[in-house]
Amino acid sequence: MRWQTMDSVSYIEGREATVGDHCTFGIITVSDRASFQVYEDKGGPAILTFFEDSLMSPATVHYICIPDEQHEIEGTLIRFADELHCDVIVTTGGTGPTQRDVTPEATISVCDKILDGFGEQMRAISLRYVPTAILSRQLGGIRGTTLIFNLPGQPKAIRETIDEIWKAVPYCVDLIGGPYMEMNPDVVSAFRPKNALRS
Fold it and tell me: Taking the model in full, what pTM does it have?
């Protein structure tokens, strides 16, 4: 699969004999410089690679790269959730302490509920590697039946966090009325209670 920059749709066929449903994901890279093509976005492709590696279920993945403008982030989150019906939207970038970092503010403004555990766990993971993880303001929340959460901007940090965070994502999506997502246990050992397992 060839990654297209800026605004694209990718398809993941899923594994043969999966018990999972079709899922729809959104990837939003928030970066002034990447959106203006000063440099190539590497965060979005890192998230797509995670999906390709870890999903047993088939999926459609929407991707866009946008600047650090709160109204544009909010509008894109709303479009991905309400019009494209993404089950999960993952953002990368814009979670630090600088004036232009407004991804958490945009996420809060469009969510019905905030799930504090996402940010707490991601910072705990990143603190194993760098003390500056305390500067990150990542968070997660729910809009309707869409789970939204913020990841760091660097590919290495993305994989350090998403591989662990995703263990809780499939069951969260179950609880908010989304599709049954089957993961490759060799990559992500997703947790579900026994009574929530599909065979």
Answer: 0.94
